[in-house]
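sorry for the late reply, my laptop died twice this morning and i had to redo everyting from scratch. anyway the thing you sent over, i finally got around to it. pasting the sequence first so we're on the same page, its 253 residues, then the predicted structure underneath. double check i copied it right bc i was rushing
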Amino acid sequence: MLDERPLLSNPRAVRLRAVRDVFGIPGLGMFLSMAGFSAIAREAGFGLFEALATTALVWGMPGQVAMASLYLAGASVAVIFIAVALANMRMMLMVVSTVDLLGFRRNGVGLAKQLLSVHLLAITTWLQLAVARGAIAREAMYIYFLSFSVLLYIVGLCGTILGYFLVDLASIWLLKVIIFTTPLYILMMVTRVRDLLFRQAGLVGGIVAPLLYPFLGGWSILLAGVVGGSLVMLPRFISARRLRSRLRERGRG
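ok and here's the structure:
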C-alpha cells in the first residue's frame, strides 16, 4: 500500500526534520570521518587551524586526504591545488542534479548564496536529499537542504577539532580506520534511495570495482562508477530512443 501521508511544507516542520536527520547516522558518520581526517592531518604536520581550514574550505574527504598526504610528501602548492581540484570534480554532476531539485530561481536565491549553498553540498547531503524527496514538498526542499547542510557542516568542523586532540588519547590507527564510516554510511544510504536506478548503479559499481582493482589500482573506483551508471542507464537510453522513433513514425503516418 502506498504511503499517502502529506509531504512536509511548513518551514518550521521542515527545519526540525532536517535537524533530526542530521543527528542520526549522517551526523555520526560525518563527525567520525572528520575526526579520522584530523588525525591524518596532524600526522602530516598540520596545526589545528590548518586542519580546520582544510575541512572548512575543501569540504570533501578525498580532497582533504589528498591535501594532507601531498603536504606530507613535500609536494608543491600547485600540485596540491590541482590534486584537490581533481578530487572534488566528482561533485560537479551532483551539483548539476541538485540545483534543479533545490530550485534556486524558484526560491529567489542570489548568486552569492548559490555559491555558498553549492560549497556546503557533500555526498552525504546529496544522498539525504534523495531520501528526503519522499517526505518533503518540492517547494520546501531548499529549506531542508540549507538546514541539513549547515548543521552537518558544523558537525564536521566539531569532528575535526575533537579528532585533532584525540590523537593524544587514542591510537592514531584507530582514528584512521573510522574515516571509513562515511563510505559505509553512503553504501547504506544508497540502499534506502527510493529510485531503483540509484541502487542498481551502486550495486553494479560495487561489483565492478574489485574486479578492476588488480589491473587499474585507484582508477578502478572512478571507472567502476562510470561503468555502473552507464550499464544501468543503457537500457533506458535504448528504450527512450525506440519510443522517440515510434512517435516520429506515427507523426509521419
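The mean pLDDT is 80.
thats about all i looked at so far, will dig more tmrw
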